[in-house]
Every structure is written in structure tokens, then in C-alpha cells.
Amino acid sequence: MTRRRRTPPAPLPQRDGVDPVRVRLPDGVAWTTVRDHLVDRLSAPPGVIDAMLSEGRVVGADGGPVAPDAPYAPGVYLWFHRDLPDEPRVPDAIDVVYRDEHIVVADKPHFLATMPRGSHIAETALARLRAQLDVPALGAAHRLDRLTAGLLLFTVRPEERGAYQTLFSDRRVHKEYEAVAAYDPEVPLPRTVRSHIVKERGVLAAYEVPDAEPNSESRVELVEHDGRLGRYRLLPHTGRTHQLRVHMNALGLPILGDPLYPEVRPPVAPDDFRRPLQLLARVLEFTDPVTGAAHRFESGRSLGAWSAYDVWAGRAQDLPRAQ
């Protein structure tokens, strides 16, 4: 039996709460130099890789810089810090609801991504909290969409992360969401929505496949209404991408502020934080797999379209008509 090679620890520290990029030079394919491989692999603009190497920004496992003409060696690990994109600062703070030696529960604002990905790197809940709490090993046990606000669970110790992630994959976390959408008295509630949802890589919106075996389930309850808008409690049994947004749209009750459902809208400027999606991860409840403690956490945030629609919308004329 071949023993898997242990990944060496990163020789570079985090920067702004963001880990350095790790690259393993693959077996089976040969390049003449490390530089040639990085140029092919990273698809960086011309001259970027050469500059990184000449400036000593690419290092090996010992922390020493990789020479611009270093020969290619399969299995070698390299690290470097990516150039961070120019990200607009998400204006709202991320609040810590609970913290102990094992976990951190945070209440994230709308527009803040959970983890570094794509064009959102430093402006993420994970990067912010690592810097804010000075816990470099902090990791996310699950994630929320960037546009959704509310509760997120983070782990303090990397060796315990799997136990908390398993809570979510085994559906042993009770989650409640809150949403604001139009009120329609002809939509019977409460009800359970089941469907087969598909989310294709590179496609913004998910879609439902009629007559296919359901892979998603959500309970939808009406908490209150004012004749035009409703405040809804959403209880997901499964965790498909955009599941609650898709199911509310299927009921004819798309969540206010949703840029994808019922139709994909043109993108807005990166610094446009108006009219946030009216979806909030309100409650997280679970038994701690490490300590055995029973936890229940509730978000302190509110949805602006319910409390002050005119302020949220910026104008009053597109308020849904009374039924």
C-alpha cells in the first residue's frame, strides 16, 4: 500500500486573514522549469509569474524563495500570496454571537461572502473574523450565500472541523430562515415543498427538473402579513444551492431583492449595497459534537423590507399591490 505523502505546513503567514496559495507540482507531466509550469497553470497576465519569482514571492516548504530558473520537480510544494483584488468594503460589521475554545458563531451581514472565492477574498466572513479575533486557524463549518445574512458556524481547531461539518451533512442542525416576499392569500400555507433542483457550474440560477426524484425539501410558513407583504419562516430539510430561493419562487413568492429569481437581472456595481436580498438565517440549533452541549443561537438582525419598506426599496411605488 502506498502511503500518502503528508502535506507540509505553510511557510508563509496569513495576510489580511487570507491563507497563502499552495501549489503541488504534479506527477506524470514534465515541464523544464517551475516557472514554465506556473505560467501554464495559473493563467496569469504576461510577466506576472516572472515578477513573482524575481521578487522572491514564491517559496518552497523551507520558506526559501524559488529561483526563476529552478528546475521542475514533481511532488514539490510551493506557496505564494495572491494579489488581492480591489474589493469594496462591505459596510456592515460581522457580529460574534458566541465564542468558546471550539467554535465561533457569527452573524454576518448581507453582501459578505462566507469564504474566499473568485473576486471575494479579503471581504469575506472567514478572512474578517480571522483578523478580527486573531485566530488564524479559524475555519467555516458551512456557508451561506453572499447575499444571505445571518448565522454562520466556524471552528477554532482544524482537527475538530470535520465533526462540525458532519452535523450539517447528516442534517443534525436545526436551521430556521426568515424571508420577506409578496403576500398571496391563494397560496396555501404552511406547506412542504419538494423538488429536484439542479445547479450547474458557471450558470447563475438553479432550476427545477419536473417529475424527477426530489432532492430538496423546504417547509414554508407564513408568520404574518400586512395585506401586501408577508414575513415567512423557512425550514430547509436539505441544503441544495439556492434551495429556499428556488422554492419560494416556485410558489409564486420570490424573495424580495433576489437578483436571480424569477429572472436573472443585470449585474450591479460591486459597491452597490442597496436593496439586499430579504433572506436571513435566523436560527441555528444543534448538539455540540465535541462538548455535548445543547446550543441554540438566534440572529440579532432584521429584514429591512418588513420593518421599513420605503427605506429598503428607496422608493415606494413598487410595493406589491394589496390582494
Task: Summarize the entry for a quick read.
Helix content is 16%, strand content 24%. By secondary structure, it is an alpha+beta fold.
Task: Give an overview of the whole structure.
Strands 3, 4, 5, 6, 7, 8, 11, 12, 13 and 14 form a ten-stranded mixed sheet that branches. A two-stranded antiparallel ribbon has the order 1-2. The chain has a two-stranded antiparallel sheet with strand order 9-10. The protein is built from seven helices and 14 strands. The protein has helices spanning 34-42, 48-54, 125-133, 161-169, 243-250, 304-307, 309-313, and strands at 21-24, 77-80, 95-99, 103-108, 139-140, 149-155, 174-182, 191-195, 197-198, 207-208, 216-225, 229-236, 279-287, 294-298. With 323 residues, it is of the alpha+beta class. The chain is elongated and about 70 Å long. Strand 9 (197-198) and strand 10 form a beta hairpin.
- The residue fraction in helices comes out at 10-25%
> Which residue ranges are poorly predicted, with pLDDT under 50 across at least 5 consecutive positions?
none
Task: Indicate the mean pLDDT.
Answer: 92
Q: Determine the strand fraction and express it as a percent band.
A: 15-25%
Overall structural class, as computed from helix and strand content, comes to alpha+beta
- Rg over C-alpha atoms, rounded to the nearest angstrom: 23 Å
Distance between the termini: 69 Å
Query: Based on DSSP secondary structure assignment, what is the total number of beta strands?
Result: 14
Shape: elongated
Major sheet attributes: 10 strands, mixed
Q: What's the order of the H and E elements? A: EHHEEEHEEHEEEEEEHEEHH
- Counting DSSP H or I runs of 4 or more residues, the number of helices is 7
